[in-house]
Amino acid sequence: MIEPQPVAVTVNGARLRRFVEPRVSLADFLRQDLGLTGTHLGCEVGACGACIVNLDGQPVHACLMLAVQADGMRIDTVEGLSESGELAELQAAFHARNALQCGFCTPGILVVARDFIRDCRASGRKPTRAAIRDALSGNYCRCTGYEAIVDAIESVAGAAPMREDAA
Amino acid sequence: MSAATDSPARHREKGRYIGRGLPRPGAKRLLAGRGRYTDDVSLPRMLHAAFLRSPYAHARLGAIDVSEAAAMPGVHRVLTGADFSAICTPWVGTLSHFKGMRSAPQLPLPLEKVVWAGQPVVMVVAETRAEAEDALEAIQVAFEELEAVVDLDAARAPDAPRIDADAPDNVLFRTRIEAGSTAEAFAGAQSVAVDLRFGRHTAVTMEPRATLADFDPSEERLTVHQSTQTPYQFQDLYARHFGLSEARVRVIAPDVGGSFGMKLHVYHEDMAVVGASLLLRRPVKFTADRMEAFASDIHARDHRVRARLAFAPDGILTAIEVDDVTGVGPFSAYPRTSAVEGNQVVRLIGAPYRLTDYRADLTVVAQNKVQMSQYRAVGHPIACAVTERLVDLAADRLGLDPFEIRRRNTITDDMYPHTTPSGYRFEKLSLATCLSRLHDLMDYPRLRAEQAALREKGVHRGIGIATYVEITNPTPAFYGVGGAHISAQDGCVLKLTPAGEVQCAISITEQGQGSEAIVGQIVAEGLGVDRDAVRVLTGDTETTPSGGATWACRGAGIGGETALQASRKLKRRILEIAAAILQAEAEALDIREGAVTDADGTPRMTLKELANLAYYRSDLLPPDVSPALTVAHHFAPRGYPFAFTNGIHGSLVEVDAETGFVTILKHWVVEDCGRVINPLLVDEQIRGGVVQGLGAAFFEECRYGETGQLLNGSMTDYLVPMACEMPDIVIAHVETPTADTELGAKGCGEAGTAASSGAALNAVNDALRPLGASISQLPMTPERILRALDVI
Q1: What's residue A160's pLDDT?
Q2: For the residues of B468-506, what is the DSSP string, one character each?
Q3: Tens digits of residue pLDDT in A14-33
Q4: Quick check: B688 and A43 CB within 8 A?
Q5: pLDDT tens-digit profile of A32-67?
Q6: Both ends of chain B: CA-CA distance in Å?
Q7: Which of A44, A94, A150 shows the shortest C-beta gap to B290?
Q8: Looking at beta carbons, which residues of chain A come within 8 Å of B35?
Q9: What is the pLDDT of residues B393-438, one digit of tens each?
Q10: Are B257 and B228 in contact (CB under 8 A)?
């Protein structure tokens, strides 16, 4: 049956309680129930990456999980990560380099790029362009030629002391 | 970073914005997740639509039982073809200047037959999308399956099943272009021939199509929020087909998540959503999911082209003969027709070269597949690939280098204005300059030496080049003469606000390419104000003047010129007022950095002071001086029927002869789109275009089974180019401004797509040549390459 279930989540730092039908995806919950429309649906099969958000600090496809599965967890969307300033460096680089056109894929790419750079910094790696392109292999962009996105991520990754990546 | 991409031709003086690689102001909103795409819009009392779609490619419709669905929770209405035929007049996708063209009339939902798998048949309108989808499962439709017409060539057979029962055959349109005598030219000449196949692919905009119609019966007003690039076109269509007052129809295209030509065609769902809102008198939204997008968004290309080229022993090309057969789906798309794609193929083949004799036949055939119509670089990639493959084959036959044969044959600088055998008139191109620039940019001799050295080691690299000519800045000759209500002019309303800032409402639209950014730059420079003081509004028929919007590379060239002229008009207006206040001659004044100045730049008063006076103290102005600080300007190109951007691509690939996989190592583009307004935006738009062309070359194909089922209608099955598969793309500019406008800009949005697949085709064939193989079908999948190599 599809009776709504209680769900308690922390979204962008705010603790929220809602009743949600079990069949509702996390993406639809964020967009429709919470009005967080920065999370976009491009394919709904986990291929395009437009819906990627952070779940307990890790990037996940919001189209591939149900809202009820996120019960008790922390979700950070592009809106929250923007307001907290965690994406500021990347956003500035993307803006300067015009690393977006229509912007539909951009929130998912920013979340993935932030995670990638955090990993690079944690391990002290300075990623090659090939490694950046590889990290983006779950994010489709149809407007840019990807090059500006790679440039923007590279410029942020290069801003911190890191050693050359072996990849 | 942006400073490095400024056009070298421009001085970096203060107030100079045209030619500078400035970031887009609007991009900050999108980066913060604050975009507002159509599906993000939610209205009070809004209902959601879902469609039952035909499982068959071709079937007669029997009884439709919706009683159970209509009684399900949340369902407001279940609508079928008859509900809409009462309120909507049919549309027919023909243009009168394509003589003899025909296409079956269309309604939002079918009455008797379905003609492609995925065609919407029944519409459910419910409280939520999920409830609407639940109800779809309770609908019973009696389909009587008919034989489907799938293959391009089979559809033309005399005994092929008819898609339109009233038609004599499945051919929707035929045309022949003839100049000189190809029969004479080929007699005794050397020649090469190709038989090339180009698969169907589709736009795959990251944002699927979305429409939200809101009819307010109290005022008989219809507001449609729609993910489209052409809001004025849809305002006209909704008004005409539903019998509404055009002034009471408003179409709003907020942020649009990619379009590429796909979102300017009429879709059955659009009309059904508008019709449902009229019938239910409530807002109704439909957003396609990705499977629906694959099964109903227009597909592109789908050609089989046989062509041959005659040439002299010295490598001078003389004549081309072409037979292009293109499959367009069951009917021609509306309102731009599915004939334009093929028409541009047969008119653009051979265009960069000095041919004397030309003959081309085009046959546009119907099939039981999704409709095929205009998509980025309409017809150009086909024309380019056919031409450039022929030229490479001729070079190979004669032992000439690909650069050398092109050098001997491209239209030279002393030949302009030039008319092609197919009738296109070129004001001025820069083909020879682009050719030599590419040679340098690629470091061609080094690449050839490296290629030869690697071949010794069993590494098969290929180098391909492809010259293109791109149609831009279209005049009414494009659609208007054929009877379509598609405007070739643009409008701009400029207002100096009471605070001394500038608001610019313009009819070109923004889908991410940066229309708003370049218009802001043009207005700021034209007026003499800071770029940040200009706010640009687009995408709303009620707040912007009517015009053509953004398609066919007309935004910068026509919209940009409109904005420039409008800014000059507002400047004159401001200086008239300033002259009265300052008791000076208007001609002796100027505007710089937001202030009225003397001719030598000495500031006299700020625009804020002037605006304050005009708005709040107009009593201080002389009685014969108007206080108006809003101007409107419209511009339509009147010189050449089209402007033409030109350029050349280079492609370097490596073919793995054991697996058939191709690695795209590098791609180069030299392009000439006239005056470059913002190189930062132009470059990445060209790169985006290149990647879409490389997608067509290597990955993207809408694959159909024998019964007309689309076999790969999801993003897991349909391959879109990914970052890790794409190379770095080197771009260089040549600037030959058109003299038809003061701005001098031509289009650049399709230049990347026009030639990248042709260059890739030549590159792969260059790699295969020493192996005694060649490929003549796009996309060049590993399987097809292995077949070409006789491995499988």
Answers
A1: 58
A2: EEEEES--TTTTGGGT----S-EEEEEEE-TTS-EEEEE
A3: 999 999 999 999 999 999 99
A4: no
A5: 999 999 999 999 999 999 999 999 999 999 999 999
A6: 49
A7: A44
A8: 37-38, 103-104
A9: 999 999 999 999 999 999 999 999 999 999 999 999 999 999 999 9
A10: no
**A42 Cβ under 8 Å from any chain B Cβ:** yes
Burial of residue B29 (CB within 10 Å: 0-12, 13-18, 19+) is middle
DSSP β-bridge partners for residue B603? B597
* Cross-chain Cβ contact A130/B724 below 8 Å: yes
Nearest-5° angle of CA B489, CA B494, CA B495?
160
pLDDT at site B15: 83
Question: Is-contact B298 B370, C-beta < 8 A?
Answer: yes
Strand (E) or helix (H) holding A88: helix A88-97
Residue B719, phi then psi, degrees to nearest 5: -90, 120
pLDDT confidence of A166, banded at 50, 70, 90? very low
Whole-angstrom CA distances from B738 to B418, B516, B640, B673 are 14, 22, 10, 9
**3-state secondary structure (DSSP) of residue B702:** coil
Amino acid, res. B224? V
Cβ contacts of B600 within 8 Å, gap of 6 or more: none
pLDDT value of residue B250? 98
- Residue B771 touches chain A, beta carbons under 8 Å: no
Please say whether the beta carbons of A53 and A70 come within 8 A.
no
Structure tokens at B763: 């590159």
The rounded distance, in Å, linking the Cα atoms of A100 and A97 is 8
Of A107, A134, A142, the CB nearest to B258: A142
- pLDDT under 70: residue ranges of chain B: 1-12
DSSP helix, strand, coil percent of chain A (3-state; round to 5): 40, 20, 45
Taking contacts as CB-CB distances below 8 angstroms, the residues of chain B near A21 are 130
Q: How far apart are CA B92 and CA B90, in angstroms?
A: 7
Strand partners, B729: B667
**Cα–Cα distance measured from residue B698 to residue B691, given in angstroms and rounded to the nearest whole number:** 10
Return phi, psi of residue B396, to 5°.
Answer: -60, -45
- Name every chain B residue with its beta carbon within 8 A of the beta carbon of A23: 130
Q: What share of chain B is helix, strand, coil (3-state, %, to 5)?
A: 30, 25, 40
Tokens of B82: 């008859």
3-state secondary structure B604-671: EEEHHHHHHHHHHCHHHCCCCCCCCCEEEEEECCCCCCCEEEEEEEEEEEEECCCCCCEEEEEEEEEE
Q: Hey, is the C-beta of A101 within 8 angstroms of any chain B C-beta?
A: yes
**pTM, full prediction:** 0.96
The Cα-based distances of B261 to B287, B369, B479 in angstroms read: 18, 19, 15
